[in-house]
Design a protein that fits this description.
It contains five helices and three strands. The longest helix has 20 residues.
């Protein structure tokens, strides 16, 4: 999956990828990458972390899903909170406490 909606050529071997707006906050983003690395990733020659080691995990997530770093952190935090609440209210936990 790739969240690219367009691109333009940058300086030298750079490619400026326009990423679709984040589905959570709606902000549009751009990520600048090397053209050869981009082709290797899109063609399946390299996984994203090997094609773009200079990008942060948040920037790579942005390329894959369009979700920006802040929204991804919030989604993860909300997911972890839901898991803790589910465990706290679990009947299995209550049975273990009774033993």
């Amino acid at each position: 999956m790739i969240a690219m909606i367009g691109y333009e050529y940058g300086q030298g071997n750079d490619l400026v990828i326009k990423v679709r707006p984040c589905p959570s906050c709606g902000k549009p983003h751009e990520v600048t990458v090397n053209i050869c690395a981009f082709e290797n990733w899109v063609d399946g020659i390299l996984p994203i972390q090997d094609a773009f080691p200079e990008l942060s995990p948040a920037e790579r997530e942005l390329l894959l899903t369009g979700i920006d770093g802040d929204c991804f952190k919030n989604m993860r935090r909300n997911h972890e909170t839901r898991l803790r609440l589910r465990f706290r209210n679990s009947p299995y936990r209550q049975k273990a406490a009774e033993r």
